[in-house]
């Protein structure tokens, strides 16, 4: 069980100078448990083995990319090691203040900020960048899984429209006409923090990998309900080919389908996120 007594014990043993700070439970998702540590720090502990590998990705690569990004990210402050009480590596991180963007949408003027952030992130990654069988692959390799969910959702909702199906097929047929770069890989609205309308942080970097920029560009439809804001993000990023825009639509559909399907069986927050993504893609095509 990952609880406050365990966190205190780990700190006391490995980072005793932090052990006297107050510890507050924040949230526990499928992959990680999060605690606040004092006013300025947080602690993130994996809940399962697959998540432990993602934490290691963050610990290895975020210190390398953090300085060039114009939005705060949870660059590890300290790293915890596995021991007899807990089997995985864990992180002490800066506390990033804000509300997930699925609960507080950023102001439309933040579209330029997001695009600038993505431009700063999207540079070629080294050869030893982490592989990700879900995000670093062409969209066509995810088609079977997504289309199976689309068929299920078509029976449960009215969101899998003919326009969505057509945009999906166009995305699958669009060539990849850009070189692979660093991508966040999971840039949905729950992983973007907003404070007073401004994007305050980008979190949950476990899926970081080298892949198609269209995977991250899909965040435009997951983040902004305002059509002009979406167009501004695309214009500010600049030099997005028609093929890349089609693939970005496809990734937005893929994320929307995955989130909606997850939400209908698990968490209503994901239902809303998936619905918004699909509706916004429909508005733009």
TrEMBL record:
SUPFAM superfamilies, A to Z: Protein kinase-like (PK-like)
The Aminoglycoside phosphotransferase domain, residue ranges: 23-233
Sorted UniProt keywords: Transferase
Domain of life: Bacteria
Pfam families reported for this sequence: APH (PF01636)
GO terms, molecular function: transferase activity
InterPro entries in UniProt: AGP_Transferase, Aminoglycoside_PTrfase, Kinase-like_dom_sf
Residue ranges that the Swiss-Prot or TrEMBL entry lists as coiled coil: none
Protein name: Phosphotransferase
Source organism: Pseudanabaena frigida
Phylogenetic lineage: Bacteria, Bacillati, Cyanobacteriota, Cyanophyceae, Pseudanabaenales
């Amino acid at each position: 069980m990952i609880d406050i007594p365990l966190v205190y014990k780990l700190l006391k043993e490995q980072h005793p100078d932090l052990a006297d700070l107050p510890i507050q439970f924040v949230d526990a998702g499928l992959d990680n448990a999060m605690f606040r540590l004092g006013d300025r720090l947080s602690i993130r502990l994996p809940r399962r083995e697959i998540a432990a590998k993602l934490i290691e990705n963050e610990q290895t690569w975020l210190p390398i990319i953090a300085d060039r990004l114009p939005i705060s990210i949870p660059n590890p402050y300290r790293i915890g090691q596995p021991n007899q009480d807990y089997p995985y590596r864990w992180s002490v991180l800066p506390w990033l203040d804000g509300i997930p963007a699925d609960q507080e949408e950023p102001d439309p003027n933040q579209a330029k900020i997001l695009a600038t952030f993505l431009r700063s992130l999207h540079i070629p990654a080294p050869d030893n960048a982490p592989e990700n069988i879900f995000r670093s692959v062409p969209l066509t390799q995810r088609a079977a899984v997504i289309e199976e969910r689309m068929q299920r959702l078509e029976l449960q909702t009215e969101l899998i429209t003919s326009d969505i199906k057509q945009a999906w097929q166009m995305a699958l047929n669009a060539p990849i006409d850009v070189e692979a770069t660093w991508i966040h890989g999971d840039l949905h609205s729950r992983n973007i923090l907003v404070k007073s309308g401004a994007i305050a942080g980008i979190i949950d970097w476990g899926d970081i990998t080298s892949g198609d920029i269209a995977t991250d560009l899909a965040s435009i439809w997951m983040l902004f309900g305002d059509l002009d804001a979406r167009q501004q993000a695309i214009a500010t990023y600049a030099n997005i080919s028609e093929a890349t825009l089609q693939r970005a639509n496809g990734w937005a559909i893929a994320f929307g389908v995955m989130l909606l399907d997850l939400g209908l069986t698990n968490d209503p927050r994901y239902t809303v996120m998936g619905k918004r993504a699909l509706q916004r893609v429909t508005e733009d095509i």
